[in-house]
Specification:
single chain; globular; 8-stranded mixed β-sheet; alpha/beta
Length: 381
């Protein structure tokens, strides 16, 4: 049975795909059979990191019925490493239907390999959360930047809520309580998971104990990427403390990587860093992470837990957290209260976002003027 390693981040730009590709190659060099899967559906570009030429065999061709699943598992130029390409040319892949998701999960679980590495898309779509919960030992990649830290924490908070709703199924007393609680978003955002579990233990003790058991099984692992100063590593400890205090979640700190110019050179050469320059600082950091993964004991959720079971198309707070103001504010409150973010860092983030919004407005005005001018010229003709 393969060990599934989903790799996720709250937002893009933190080096998630670079890490996934290099980790796959490093594990392959260590004698492990690895299958690397590009599940950033709709924005698939993982093939560029490993220099894999895009072909007709992809998840898109399989979903459209043009290819058998076994035929989209393609060999690469790297020892023991196989690759399943996504398909950015098929926009429907960004919103898989329920039966498509089930088919995909079952086929992925049937792959014969030592490690199945899933490079997930950025964000908190329900599909991404479910794929992350295929293993209790997924990797969450963050960076020291304030926005990256916030989005990484929000992603983990979303996953915990998804686990909560998966455990307290429709028709249970616990789910009924959660549905009532959703109607009061202010109360919801101020309620920490440990407090919520205490209440659910009296409302629905059987499922509450099951949720507690699954939270104990759930051990996501954090990698702090692209750091520039050793002090940036402290951010990982603070994220870990906030997850424990406000989510009741124990996360493991797997390692860090420094920002290294070699990654840009390797990417332009379409080579993994561990092949382009294995002795680089970044290359050695990836090897250390790979060694820790190989040495770590394998954990599994209980046999009854399957995130794909039940067609639970609920619309709730964790399914649209990035668009939900109250949910995001609650994440900021957690990190500021726990000391993960300082008020000065928060102020700097707001200042930066305001600047970015101003630039976007200017670009929109410029584009609007160009469109109007082009339209006027068209009418004259």
């Amino acid at each position: 049975m393969s060990q599934i390693i989903p790799i996720a981040s709250g937002k893009g730009g933190v080096g998630k795909s670079l890490l996934a590709a290099n980790l796959a190659v490093a594990l392959g060099q260590g004698g492990k059979r690895v299958v690397l899967v590009d599940l950033d559906l709709g924005a698939s570009n993982l093939h560029l990191v490993i220099g894999q030429r895009p072909g007709i065999a992809s998840l898109g061709s399989w979903f459209s019925g043009k290819t058998d699943f076994k035929d989209i598992i393609q060999p690469t130029d790297y020892q023991n490493v196989y690759f399943i390409a996504g398909d950015s040319q098929i926009p429907d892949l960004t919103s898989l239907k329920y039966n498509q998701k089930i088919r995909l999960i079952r086929n992925l679980k049937n792959i014969n390999c030592d490690y199945l590495i899933l490079d997930l898309g950025a964000g908190t779509h329900q599909f991404i959360l479910d794929m992350f919960l295929l293993s209790p030992q997924g990797l969450i990649v963050s960076a020291p930047a304030v926005t990256a830290t916030l989005n990484g924490y929000l992603f983990l908070k979303n996953v915990v809520f998804r686990l909560l709703y998966t455990t307290f199924k429709r028709g249970t007393p616990g789910r009924e309580y959660l549905e009532q609680l959703k109607k009061d978003p202010v109360k919801m955002q101020k309620l920490y998971i440990p407090q919520l579990v205490q209440t659910l233990s009296s409302v629905d003790p059987q499922n509450a104990q099951l949720f507690i058991k699954r939270m104990q099984q759930f051990r996501p692992r954090l990698i702090m990427n692209m750091i520039e100063d050793p002090k940036d590593a402290d951010r990982a400890t603070r994220i870990k403390n906030s997850c424990n205090q406000y989510l009741g979640l124990e996360i493991e700190y797997l390692g860090l990587t420094f920002r290294d110019i070699v990654q840009d050179k390797a990417l332009s050469s379409q080579l993994p860093v561990v092949v382009y320059k294995p002795q680089s600082v970044l290359g050695q950091a990836i090897y250390r992470i790979a060694d820790k993964i190989i040495a770590a004991p394998v954990h599994q959720f209980d046999a009854d837990f399957t995130p794909e079971s039940g067609n639970d198309n609920f619309q709730n707070i964790e399914d649209e957290a990035n668009e939900d103001y109250n949910f995001k504010i609650s994440g900021i409150d957690d990190l500021v209260s726990g000391g993960t973010l300082s008020t000065s860092e928060l102020a700097e983030m707001v200042k930066t976002q305001n600047y970015e919004l101003t630039q976007i407005r200017k670009e929109n005005m410029l584009l609007r003027s160009k469109l109007l001018k082009a339209a006027e010229q068209g009418f004259k003709i």
